[in-house]
Amino acid sequence: MRRTVTQGDREVLAKLRAIVDHPRTERVILTLIIINAITLGLQTSKTAMSAIGPVLEVFDDIMVGIFVVEVAARIIVHRLAFFRDPWSVFDFVVVAIALVPASQTLSVLRALRILRALRLITAVPSLKAVVAGLLAALPGMGSIVLLIMLLYYVFAVMAVKLFGPDFPELFGTLGKSFFTLFTVMTLEGWVDGVVKPIMEKFPRAWIFFVTFIIVTTFMVLNLFIGVVVNAMQEEHEKLEKLEREAEREIVHEETAPILAEIRSLKIEVAELRKAIAGKT
């Protein structure tokens, strides 16, 4: 039989909603997330584990229990709306990972407990806006990745043809050529490790590598920055628009009773004027 919701249930749910949605609750959870991230870091220290290892493990279990209760309360309050919010689903998955038993086969999942520190993203609005901007930039990044892979392929094939026979350890195969060009793109030791040995045999080889660096490092990679900055700017504008709309709604809610009272007073004044005019 379907259980009917009583008035007492509604009152309990309203109190629970007030606690879950209260800003103080968010601040407490944020503080606990930071403390829990610190304790998880301490668990990687042999010195700390030998000194207070059992205390850290008990504290970690307590933190997991608090986070489970917090997520469960949010599910009870928001119900299906909880799972429609991607950030809430992220919190649910991160907390669920912490409940995985510490067996040998699932030790990798247990190592993912540190992902609870990423809940700071959902707790801090500024971090949330940054991540939202990065996610919004993914479609544009896909086109740039395709472009850079095409350029990599062209330069890698050229390098195999030009330098592969004489420097097989660097450009002997297409895979080696890709890896060598990647190290060149990062500008880490590309002069002494790649270019100088090749220039001893091919003095004009610098033209190829300088062209590659200009095209990939200074041009294409800057496109990534442009796409991300543009996406973050749009996300920032959306947040500002939502804040302005929220402010207008608050002002409307505050002024609506006053306006209604003024309208009723105008009606009363008009009726009084009619009554006075009728008597005269």
Give a structural overview:
The chain is flat and about 115 Å long. The mean pLDDT is 79. The chain has helices spanning 7-20, 23-42, 46-78, 80-84, 86-98, 107-111, 119-123, 125-136, 138-163, 168-171, 174-185, 190-199, 205-279. The chain is mostly helical. The longest helix has 75 residues, at 205-279. It folds into two domains: 7-123, Four Helix Bundle (Hemerythrin (Met), subunit A), CATH 1.20.120.350; 138-248, Helix Hairpins (Orthogonal Bundle). It contains 13 helices and no strands.
Produce the secondary structure layout.
Layout: H1 7-20, H2 23-42, H3 46-78, H4 80-84, H5 86-98, H6 107-111, H7 119-123, H8 125-136, H9 138-163, H10 168-171, H11 174-185, H12 190-199, H13 205-279
Share of helix among residues?
A: over 70%
- The percent range for strand residues is under 5%
* SSE order, one letter for each helix or strand: HHHHHHHHHHHHH
Radius of gyration: 31 Å
For the sheet with most strands, the description reads: none
**How many individual helices?**
13
CATH-level-2 architecture of the largest domain: Up-down Bundle
The computed structural class is mainly alpha
CATH class of the largest domain: Mainly Alpha
Instruction: Find the count of extended strands (DSSP E, 2+ residues).
Output: 0
**Coarse shape:** flat
Terminus-to-terminus distance: 71 Å
Runs with pLDDT <50, length 5+?
A: none
